[in-house]
TrEMBL record, chain A:
Taxonomic lineage: Bacteria, Bacillati, Actinomycetota, Actinomycetes, Micrococcales
Catalyzed reactions: a quinone + NADH + 5 H(+)(in) = a quinol + NAD(+) + 4 H(+)(out)
Domain NADH-quinone oxidoreductase subunit D: 161-449
Gene name of this polypeptide: nuoD2
Localization per record: Cell membrane
Translocase in keyword set: yes
Protein name: NADH-quinone oxidoreductase subunit D
TrEMBL record, chain B:
Location of the protein in the cell: Cell membrane
This protein's UniProt keywords: 4Fe-4S, Cell membrane, Iron, Iron-sulfur, Membrane, Metal-binding, NAD, Quinone, Translocase, Transport
Protein source organism: Actinotalea fermentans
Cofactor note: Binds 1 [4Fe-4S] cluster.
Name of the protein: NADH-quinone oxidoreductase subunit B
UniProtKB/TrEMBL annotation, chain C:
Taxonomic placement: Bacteria, Bacillati, Actinomycetota, Actinomycetes, Micrococcales
Composition skew (Basic and acidic residues), residue ranges: 1-11
Membrane protein topology class: Peripheral membrane protein
Domain NADH:ubiquinone oxidoreductase 30kDa subunit: 141-261
The name this protein goes by in its record: NADH-quinone oxidoreductase subunit C
Length: 449, 183, 281
């Protein structure tokens, strides 16, 4: 008798594949639920939703027990996007770690980069040496990124409800932000632009004007989006009072971000334990007391406007300060060459090449060692909290005095917030599960890392 | 025989060419987003890049109604059986586009968690490099795939082509045995 | 090329060239904070202290030596002729701090001692040591008291660490008897404070009482730590793997678990996985 497997295709018998480990993705929870359902023989239905499902916000898997249309039990299955980024970071230098951690939560790359770099700077003890201009550029990019991330949250949330226009409007608005990112970092996503000690390059000439021109456009698109959503009776009918999670539930489950602020607590890391000089910017933390999915949408829209306020202030500061250093002066950390695209289209600095190839072998050795081996970071550990679009992001780095992290751990807000799914969905309708998950806005790259 | 000589309004062609042309012009991709590339795939579907210019804006949620799987992102060991199941559920003929360097070769994540290339699990028709590839690159890859689809054989020709490809693959030297320069 | 060849270069350029050996103190480099951190991080611990039992005047371990490293490039058996093969370095984490800890740290530790005392547990029984490093407070908690410490930190009105932000693990294979560390991050919204708890357990007996009764949000974090490090959290409602498939062998983020890369083949040439390449450490 063949063994029953939950796969569509039977297991292939192949002698050549013997000894090769095979793993199944069905999960222990699922077997448990299915067995128990069979044993009890009750008329209850167990529904598996995902990991390939258009409404689960990525490769999230939901295991739902339903009684009619009512969800009686909801469990999450995660790990389908586990990439081992934390382990990979242990094999790369502190600077290269930026490239890896930016790919965790791919909708908010600058937040992981900044958290990582701030933690490395704490470990090095150079927090105060980071040039002001670099910090302002970080703030500028992070806040634009927050708008972009919230737009995706709103857009895909709308798409999951079947409202494609919300998605197209949100993505069109996000393209304006991506154009700015591309101008500054050269990439639309996964930038690797914030580096320990500062940022990779100064913003290019003319970028400030481009951003200033783009801001009214972005504001206009957000206005369109909020008109489309917030007054729409169908949208409100789907979201108001759905996915309720009160303050006690949030605090118990460690939930942060817009979900926590929708319960009335104005907890925002930018105000609570400021970093990157956020205490010097003028902005508000919007709160609501409705604690439902609709309140979360309203808060995200409000936060977009607040972020744009910070962006405007950052622009003023960049304009006032003028060009300047964007990397620490310490030559043991900063890369020796200020690279720029030359007339030959290559990103080389001809003066620097002339120096290291022609006059100074020590400079060549230093450059080679710094890039291949990296700089050493004194032993110890540091934790940096950053207000991510989805909540509180913690970067916990442990150094053993080497040129690579001994351990890097990112406490991603989506991972933590997903724990609330059962609390928010159980007792509700099946269709409301999608709304509740969209309100949490998990990004699976961040959840599974 | 040219078109000019035929009665007006009639186009003569082979069934194979006609089927290829129609398959190419109405491909339905399955919604199968994994990671960062999925966001770029969604961006390709929206207004600035507008994949509907190529008749592909309808992303099917059910793999049974789709004929193109865009593997957009890193495939983990845990996700691999799911990817295969989605592929198996799609009806023939079907094509696979491996989007991004993670899906193509594991990319920068050569570690315990990731399958080093989705071609370990499903046959891939076109590889698209980039991390993540720009939407324009995805459009270009899709157009290149369209050309492949347009010229794909039909009926008995297809059966023969599949058989020939399999025999050639069996006869070929495995990559692990190829020794040579990095060229 | 000596400095005599380019006397016109300024101090910054000289520092750039001279800093080839990273870690060598260079007086011309404006880097006071880093130098201080180097000293605090105790990279230059005499090796003979490792063999004996290093005890300070108060009976506490003065330096938390977690590993001893030899060589320069991390490669063994390759006939290293560079001369760096005989290099022996100790890896030490910041040691236990002495009072005053500074800032609000003293206050929190005092109140915690009081609360623990009321519960009938002596402070030194529950807390191994207090480390203040880089402006961050870490309490090393003995595992049998971790739930009590968490509850005290959460419930006392002067402490109020009401937000449990997560648990993760760190593996120190060289730290014999305390190989696995679980790190808890707590945050007090009321008082605007953050602190870190660390619990060390031996690899042979990797059990820690679960903190989920105090911080329900630690549920998934403890599952993740179990998944990656094999630390068993006793009393957890459902300690199953979360990221890896259920039937996965081993705990992949331990130091003795390889990165797990496979060679990348290209045109017949093989590129070894990152953990098998030559590395500087």
């Amino acid at each position: 008798m063949t063994q029953q497997t939950p796969h569509a295709s039977a297991h292939i018998v192949d002698e050549g594949a013997e000894g090769v480990p095979t793993f199944e993705a069905t999960g222990g929870d699922w077997s448990q639920i299915a067995e128990e359902a069979a044993r009890l023989g009750e008329e209850r239905i167990v529904v598996n939703m995902g990991p390939q499902h258009p409404s689960t916000h990525g490769v999230l898997r939901l295991m739902l027990e339903i009684d009619g249309e009512t969800v009686t039990e909801a469990r999450c299955g995660v790990g389908y996007l586990h990439t081992g980024i934390e382990k990979s970071m242990e094999y790369r230098t502190w600077t290269q770690g930026v490239t890896l951690c930016t790919r965790m939560d791919y909708l908010a790359p600058f937040f992981q980069e900044t958290a990582h770099c701030l933690a490395v700077e704490t470990l090095l003890g150079i927090t105060d040496d980071v040039p002001e201009r670099a910090t302002v550029i970080r703030v500028l990019l992070m806040e634009l990124n927050r708008v972009g991330s919230h737009l995706i949250a709103l857009g895909t949330g709308g798409n999951e409800l079947g409202a494609t226009t919300i998605m197209t409007t949100a993505f069109t608005a996000r393209e304006e932000i991506l154009k700015i990112f591309e101008l500054i970092t050269g990439l639309r996503m996964n930038h690797g632009f914030v580096r320990p000690g500062g940022v990779a390059q100064d913003i290019p000439p003319g970028a400030l004007d481009t951003i200033r021109e783009a801001l009214p456009l972005i504001r206009d698109y957000i206005g369109q989006l909020s008109d489309l959503m917030l007054g729409n009776p169908i949208f409100k009918g789907r979201l108001v009072g759905v996915g309720h999670l009160n303050l006690a539930g949030c605090m118990a489950l460690g939930i942060t971000g817009p979900v926590l602020r929708a319960t009335g607590l104005p907890y925002d890391v930018r105000k609570h334990t400021p970093y990157c000089g956020y205490e010097t910017y003028d902005f508000d933390v919007p709160v609501s007391t409705d604690a439902d999915s609709f309140a979360r949408v309203v808060l995200r829209v409000e936060e977009c406007y607040q972020s744009l306020r910070i962006v405007e202030q950052a622009l003023e500061r960049l304009q006032a300060s003028g060009p300047g250093p964007v990397m620490v002066a310490d030559k043991k950390i900063a890369w020796p060459a200020q690279l720029a695209i030359g007339s030959d289209g290559m990103g080389n600095s001809l003066d620097h090449i002339k120096e290291i190839m022609g006059t100074s072998m020590e400079a060549l050795i230093h450059h080679f060692k710094l890039v291949t081996e990296g700089f050493r970071v004194p032993a110890g550990q540091a934790t940096q909290a950053v207000e991510h679009p989805r909540g509180e992001l913690l970067a916990h780095l442990v150094s053993d005095g080497g040129t690579r992290p001994y351990r890097a751990h990112f406490r991603d807000p989506s991972f933590n917030n997903l724990q609330a799914v059962s609390l928010m969905c159980e007792g509700g309708m099946l269709a409301d599960v999608v709304v509740a998950v969209a309100g949490l806005d998990p990004v699976m790259g961040g959840v599974d890392r | 025989m040219g078109i000019e000589e035929a009665p007006s309004g009639i186009l003569l062609t082979s069934l194979e060419k006609f089927v290829g042309l129609s398959r190419k012009a109405s491909m339905w991709p399955v919604t199968f987003g994994l990671a960062c590339c999925a966001i770029e795939m969604m961006a390709t579907g929206t207004s600035r890049f507008d994949i509907s210019r190529f008749g592909m804006e309808v992303f099917r949620a059910s793999p049974r109604q789709a004929d193109l799987m865009i593997v957009a992102g890193r495939v983990s060991q845990k996700m691999a059986p799911v990817v295969r199941q989605v592929y198996d559920q799609m009806s023939e003929p079907k094509w696979v586009l491996s989007m991004g360097v993670c899906a193509s070769s594991g990319g920068m994540f050569n570690n315990y968690a990731l399958v080093q290339g989705v071609d370990h699990i499903v046959p891939v028709d076109i590889y698209l490099p980039g991390c993540p590839p720009r939407p324009e690159m995805l459009l270009n890859a899709i157009l290149a795939l369209h050309e492949q689809v347009r010229q794909s054989p039909f009926g008995v020709n297809r059966e023969a082509a599949v058989r020939a490809a399999e025999e050639a693959a069996l006869a070929a030297t495995p990559t692990s045995q190829m020794k040579g320069l990095l060229r | 090329m000596s400095d005599a060849n380019r006397p016109e270069k300024d101090a910054a350029a000289a520092a750039k060239a001279g800093a080839g050996a990273v870690g060598t103190p260079d007086p011309s480099t404006p880097q006071t904070a880093t130098e201080a951190a180097h000293e605090a991080g105790s990279q230059h611990v005499p090796t003979q202290e490792v063999a004996g039992v290093p005890t300070g005047p108060d009976g506490r371990t003065p330096l938390d030596v977690v590993d001893v490293r030899t060589g320069m490039f991390g490669a063994a058996g390759s006939g290293d002729t560079s001369g760096y093969g005989g290099l022996v370095k100790t890896v030490a984490m910041p040691p236990a701090s002495e009072r005053p800890y500074g800032g609000w740290f003293d206050e929190v530790v005092d109140i915690l001692a009081e609360v623990l005392d009321e519960a009938g547990v002596a402070f030194d029984d529950a807390i191994e040591k207090v480390v203040v490093d880089r402006g961050e407070l870490t309490l090393f908690v003995r595992r049998e008291h971790v739930v009590l410490v968490c509850r005290s930190l959460r419930d006392d009105q002067d402490l109020r660490f009401e937000l449990g932000l997560g648990v993760s693990g760190v593996h120190y294979p060289g730290d014999v008897g305390r190989e696995l560390h679980a790190v808890y991050h707590l945050c007090s919204v009321t008082h605007g404070r953050r602190l870190r708890l660390e619990v060390a357990v031996p690899d042979a007996d990797p059990h820690i009482p679960s903190s989920t009764s105090v911080y329900p949000g630690h549920d998934w974090h403890e599952r993740e730590t179990f998944d990656f490090f094999g630390i068993v959290f006793d009393g957890h409602p459902g300690l199953a793997r979360i990221e890896m498939p259920d039937d996965w062998p081993g705990h992949p983020q331990r130091k003795d678990y390889p990165l797990g890369g496979i060679p990348v083949e290209y045109k017949g040439a093989q590129v070894p996985p990152p953990d098998q390449r030559r590395a500087y450490n």
